[in-house]
Amino acid sequence: TADSVGISKIKIYKSNGNYVTTIIGTKSNGLRITNDNRHSGTYTYSGTSKTSYYAVVTFTATINGVTDTKSFTTNTMKAP
Questions:
Q1: What's this model's pTM, rounded to 2 decimal places?
Q2: Burial 6-44 (b: 16+ CB within 10 A, else e)
């Protein structure tokens, strides 16, 4: 059983690479969970209409005090 698992942060960028904001993963926003082996959830970032964004999502798991972290960059998406 993991001490903690889920998304530790999501960095949002405009399609031109300009940084917009960081969302920190917590139990209260549904991005992290404790004492479990897996977790799934959603988080919606609305952005500005007709603006394209991508995200760098950092996944983190901690087991017995040892933390492993991986990052993934999403495709670019346009806000409605």
A1: 0.86
A2: bbbbbbbbeeeeeeeeebebeeeeebbbeeeeebeeeee
Interval 32-77: pLDDT, tens: 888 877 777 788 898 999 999 999 999 998 889 899 999 999 999 9
Burial of 55 (0-12, 13-18, 19+ CB in 10 A): buried
Type of residue found at 43:
Y
DSSP letter string, the chain: -EEEEEEEEEEEEETTS-EEEEEE--TTTTSEEEEES----------STT-EEEEEEEEEEEETTEEEEEEEEPPPEE--
Q: Give the pair of three-digit tokens for residue 29.
A: 């926003």
